[in-house]
Design goal:
The protein is an alpha/beta fold. Helix content is 29%, strand content 19%. Bound molecules: ligand BJW. Its cofactor is Zn(2+).
């Protein structure tokens, strides 16, 4: 098991998924009771679904934005922030999560590869904004005032995740890659472990149950993100 005081480890990349925010009370996607249990992702999380039924998609994301105000960061978010602050080398955090719990848990650097729930993207002018409350196809864009241009600033299936150049540079330079609370079902994130391994990094999966890509990891810690990260970073 790699230890953080091992001098051969100077650069860590941490990938987080919905399991890290689960203990804060945010539903994951694919667990029992998860977001996709009552919704077909292809009817919500694709550009085609948004074109077909924008009202449904706005409702889904407005409800999740409201929920963000009811939850607070947990010990897993705080442990990662502490590692970023106190580790002598570099700790790069890339999250698939669209919530803001890493930031609220104290992380100054967070790379949101699947976007941010609090933000909207205007398809008319490309501007990004934080709306005061719920929004829909009638809400004018605060930048260009066009109506009907605002969409959730999240990455749907078939769209290119954000910051890929930066992430790939980090994966090629790290000595240790850790994935926490992700099912390993969604690409390209599920393939990051192979990219990091190919460049010689040690790899560790931390999850409540074995993920789909767990055989690609060198080290495993099974359990809750709060407990496992707490022990690792203590
Ligand atoms: C706990 C816990 C606790 C619970 N403690 N653990 C290669 C092969 C096959 C298909 C593809 C491929 N490459 C691309 C594709 C297509 C597609 C894809 O992956 N499809 C799969 C379904 C097969 N990918 C895409 O379309 C992506 N774009 C793309 O690939 O562009 C081209 C490209 C090519 C090459 C390079 C780069 C780009 C875009 C994917 C966008 C995903 N979007 C969503 C929605 C975002 C907005 C929103 O939030 O609504 O992102 S889908 C959803 O899944 C969300 C998540 O970020 C993502 C991952 O989910 P996550 O985080 O893993 O959650 P769960 O629920 O699946 O798992 C939670 C885990 O936590 C579980 O394992 C639990 O056990 C665990 N857990 N409590 C520890 N307390």
């Amino acid at each position: 098991m790699p230890a953080f005081n091992d001098r051969s480890i100077g650069h860590i990349v941490i990938l987080t998924g919905a399991g890290v925010s689960a203990e804060s009370g945010l539903a994951t996607f694919r667990d029992a009771g998860g977001l996709w249990e009552n919704h077909d992702p292809m009817e919500i999380a694709t550009p085609e679904a948004f074109a077909r039924d924008p009202a449904l998609v706005y409702r889904f994301y407005n409800a999740r934005r409201e929920k963000l105000d009811e939850v607070t960061p947990n010990d897993a978010h705080r442990a990662i922030a502490r590692l970023q602050r106190e580790f002598a080398g570099e700790v790069f955090l890339v999250t698939q999560n669209v919530d803001d719990l890493h930031e609220r848990g104290g992380s100054d650097q967070v790379c949101h590869m699947h976007g941010e729930l609090r933000q909207v993207l205007c398809e008319a002018c490309g501007g990004r904004h934080i709306p005061a409350g719920a929004y829909n196809q009638e809400t004018p864009c605060p930048g260009c005032h066009v109506r009907g241009g605002l969409r959730p600033d999240v990455v749907w299936f078939g769209e290119m995740p954000y910051h890929m150049d930066c992430i790939e540079a980090q994966l090629s330079a790290c000595d240790l890659f850790i994935a926490v609370g992700t099912s390993g079902q969604v690409y390209p994130a599920a393939g990051f472990v192979r990219q990091a391994s190919a460049f010689g990094a040690q790899t560790m999966a931390i999850n409540r149950e074995p993920s789909d890509n767990s055989s690609w990891f060198g080290h495993h810690r099974q359990g809750l993100a709060t407990e496992q990260l707490g022990q690792l970073v203590e």
